Amino acid sequence: MEAIICTKYGSPEVLKIAAVDKPIPNENEVLVKVNTTAVTASDTIIRALKVPGGHNFPVKQLMKFAMRLFIGINKPNNPILGLVFSGVIESVGKNIKTFNKGDEVFGFTGQSRGAYAEYKRVSDKEIASGEIALKPKNISHEEAAAIIYGGTLVIHFMKAVNITKGQKVLIYGASGSIGTIAVQFAKYAGAEVTGVCSSENGEMVKSLGASKVIDYTRKEAINQLEKYDLIFDAVGKNKSSELKKQSKKSLLRGGNYVSVDDGFLKVRPGYLKKLNDLIANEHIKAVIDKAFSLTEIVEAHRYVDTGHKKGSVVINVLR
Prior knowledge:
With 319 residues, this protein is an alpha/beta fold. The protein folds into 2 domains: 2-149 and 267-316, Quinone Oxidoreductase, Chain A, domain 1 (Alpha-Beta Complex); 151-259, Rossmann fold (3-Layer(aba) Sandwich). The chain contains 9 helices and 14 strands. Helix 4 (141-158) packs across helix 5 (179-188) and helix 4 crosses helix 8. The radius of gyration is 19 Å and the shape is globular. The two termini are 12 Å apart. The model has no long low-confidence stretch (mean pLDDT 94).
């Protein structure tokens, strides 16, 4: 089969298309024929060995060393990257009772990665941990791959916040793959949502449910801040600005400030079911900026590295 392998840590050019052995599932696994994957921020972090969060020397260097020990010293131990997928189950091990051949599924691979390939093997342990679920019938494979990364992160990091009707929520980085889902999630929960993004993405963010938009590039942006029950940082601690610093002072007493860099994501049973329900009931929809083929993976990573994508960048694996 064809797959994208990461030959070493570095720029997008370290990604190469290669012929690798097709996975052979055992009796406790399913084999998914991948239709679509996506280039996520986590993929670029692994590829470039970037440390998430606003850490300085020596913490940053220590964390990078720890990443090498965990992921791989000179290159990823699993050279096939890719955290999300949408596709069709091609075969089912005899001990698997939860899925059938032909089921359309989507998934978040977690530590195993491997979605930048024509086929992805999923074990019974990964099934039990909630890393794969039936794809909502009302969306395409492209849309599923576009939603699952941001959707899972939003559910994970906002699960303890308990947004209630009428609360004011600020989404910093409202136009990215995580932010576009966060805006819709908060709107569905009944919040009054303000999105922070550039002016060119303002109308798109409003169409997702934000009642107000703050353009972070304008000098008067700080003066537009109000008081918020929740501030959700959807871009992470590597990106900062005076507006972002000042926004922390805009929390109401007892309010919450949540960042996607607040710990590591671990997919849990129920996350994908909740996401499936939100999609099926049309509370959340996909925002796709661009679609590339598997052979255009370097160009896709270059584009994501600019930091200016709107929603998600998907990769169509199936030709």
